[in-house]
Design brief:
D-Maltodextrin-Binding Protein, domain 2; ten-stranded mixed beta sheet; 29% strand; two-stranded parallel sheet; 2 domains; single chain
């Protein structure tokens, strides 16, 4: 840890944590700061190594990171930055796309031994699917597939539905309850350890975007500008790719 920095509350959140939200800080007394809100997927699996790098590079700033699946109001709640997943509605905020995250289906080896592996999309109707309820709409999130050159949206149905924390469907799949769709960056390590197995790999190919958003006319602190630079350092600049930055 850099000299002069302290970690409050959860400095290193566990990927398996069942808590829907958390807040942790890197801080230096009387230093300029920034507030960042991120979803649980990004907060537990993408942000920690970036935050460690930030703490090493900028040890004199204060940063608060709020991990929640609730879409905060940046202006009303005093947040400088937020990371959002999915396609963004028109809101007047500036958005920088961070990545297009690949999606795939997974199940545990135990489940597949008991129930067999589905070979076609139609086979999924005879399996225990583990859908997620979208917080904004209260509706089930469709599973998205690519069949050759054709994109398909398929609505799973199940006796078990998960809401609030999308990481819950991965935990259920790990326990052999059924099949879930998740981001590859979340399940990659579990697949390498043999805890989860990809299902219907011929239907993968769809992605969902993650974007960094902030108010266009708000004067950013040095900490906020440093975090923007760090988060967007591996993506093309607006001059290189005008589609990566836009008002939303």
């Amino acid at each position: 840890m850099p000299d002069g920095c302290t970690w409050n509350r959860c400095a290193r959140p566990s990927p398996c944590s069942s808590r829907p939200s958390a807040t942790y800080r890197v801080k230096k007394a009387n230093s300029p700061g920034a507030r960042l809100s991120v979803p649980t997927t990004y907060g537990h699996y993408r942000l920690p190594p970036l935050l460690a790098r930030f703490a090493r590079q900028y040890p004199l700033v204060q940063l608060e990171v709020n991990i929640t699946n609730r879409n905060v109001d940046l202006v009303a709640e005093g947040f400088d930055l937020a990371i959002r997943m999915g396609h963004l509605p028109d809101s007047g905020l500036v958005a920088r796309k961070l990545e297009d995250a690949a999606l795939l289906l997974v199940a545990s080896p135990d489940y597949l031994r008991r129930m067999g592996a589905p070979r076609t999309l139609e086979d999924l109707q005879r399996h225990m699917c583990l859908p997620f309820i979208l917080p904004r709409t209260g509706r089930l999130a469709p599973w998205v597939f690519r069949d050759g050159k054709r994109d398909l949206d398929w609505l799973p149905s199940s006796s078990i539905e998960t809401s609030d924390d999308v990481l819950g469907v991965v935990s259920l799949a790990e326990q052999g309850i059924g099949i879930c769709q998740s981001y590859e960056f979340i399940v990659r390590d579990r697949m390498q350890r043999g805890e989860l197995v990809e299902v219907l790999p011929q239907l993968r190919g769809r992605t969902r975007p993650f974007s960094l958003i902030y108010a266009p006319h708000r004067r950013q602190s040095a900490a906020a500008r440093a975090m923007i630079d760090l988060l967007t350092s591996d993506i093309p600049s607006p001059e290189e790719n005008a589609n990566d930055e836009a008002s939303v």
